[in-house]
Design brief:
The protein has 279 residues and is an alpha+beta fold. The protein is 62% helix and 16% strand. The protein is built from eight helices and six strands, in the order ααβββββαβααααα. The longest helix is centred in the last third of the chain and has 75 residues.
């Protein structure tokens, strides 16, 4: 990886030539085929990865066993940085989505580099926060697309008709129209056509028509309600994904803040010790 390529990574774009050159010598190249699992949640974390080419998918397992993709990373992106900071186990899975070449930075090399360039830790936190905000925004936009746009795109003619009928059947327009129609029917057969009524009292034809209307209207309304229930389940699923992402983001930022605090306290302590020795 060249210095120019390294600076395309937001984490290291502010490095000077000397620091960037030093970091390049600490990186090791790794070629991976699509479908390769780089690590799983719970694995020991000892390295950070920079993508020179290809794509890598970061995902987690939901409580019901489903795989939830948090983000798909491309050339210039980085991942696995949590392991460099806290040395804890991986919090998500990393799977190669497209043949990729990665630059690997071990935790041992990274810590030695950060001690010589403390501003890198602050740059990492800034880049991470920007990426998390961007990912949250993508998830919110995908929620709108999934529920409204994609749902409407899959509607059939029968679905649209069911929605229209259900909407009209549950409105005051339908009630008023039905009352006017029934009263007109009774008035015509009772007063206007006394001797030649086509549906004399007790209005058996009207009763049959009402029963047929009720029999047909009920399943149409249920069809519309079932589709609405499906849309509600989709909304709930997207809300869960957003909440999951926010929870992971918050935990990630808190871990980095704790690590940064510890690093700066150690640096301040070392500096005070050096000053005391010089005096």
């Amino acid at each position: 990886m060249t210095i120019d390529t390294l600076r395309q990574v937001p984490l290291f774009e502010s490095l000077d030539n000397e620091a960037a050159s030093k970091l390049c010598h600490l990186l090791e190249s790794l070629d991976c085929k699509a479908g390769t699992s780089l690590f799983r949640a719970g694995d020991e974390g000892d390295a950070m990865y920079l993508i020179e080419r290809g794509k890598v998918r970061i995902c987690v397992r939901a409580t019901d066993g489903r795989e939830v993709t948090l983000i798909e990373l491309v050339r210039g992106d980085f991942f696995g940085e949590m392991a460099l900071l806290d040395g804890q186990r991986r919090s998500a899975d990393a799977i190669v989505a497209e043949d990729a070449r990665l630059a690997v930075l071990s935790r041992e090399h990274f810590l030695s580099f950060v001690r010589s360039s403390p501003n890198v830790a602050l740059e990492m936190l800034t880049a991470l926060a920007n990426r998390l905000r961007h990912t949250d925004e993508l998830l919110r936009r995908s929620a709108t697309r999934n529920v409204n746009v994609e749902e409407a795109a899959h509607l059939t003619l029968a679905d649209r008709a069911a929605d229209v009928i259900a909407e009209f059947g549950g409105s005051w327009k339908f009630i008023i129209a039905a009352v006017l129609f029934f009263n007109s029917w009774v008035l015509i057969n009772t007063w206007l056509l006394r001797d030649n009524a086509f549906d004399a009292y007790p209005y058996l034809l009207l009763s049959t028509a009402i029963n047929m209307l009720a029999v047909l209207q009920a399943p149409v309304i249920l069809m519309s309600q079932n589709r609405q229930s499906h849309k509600d389940r989709l909304r709930a699923e997207i809300d869960y994904q957003i909440n999951l992402k926010n929870e992971l983001a918050l935990n990630e930022i808190l871990q980095r803040l704790k690590t940064l605090e510890g690093d700066y306290l150690r640096l301040a302590s070392d500096k005070e010790s050096d000053e005391g020795i010089m005096k």
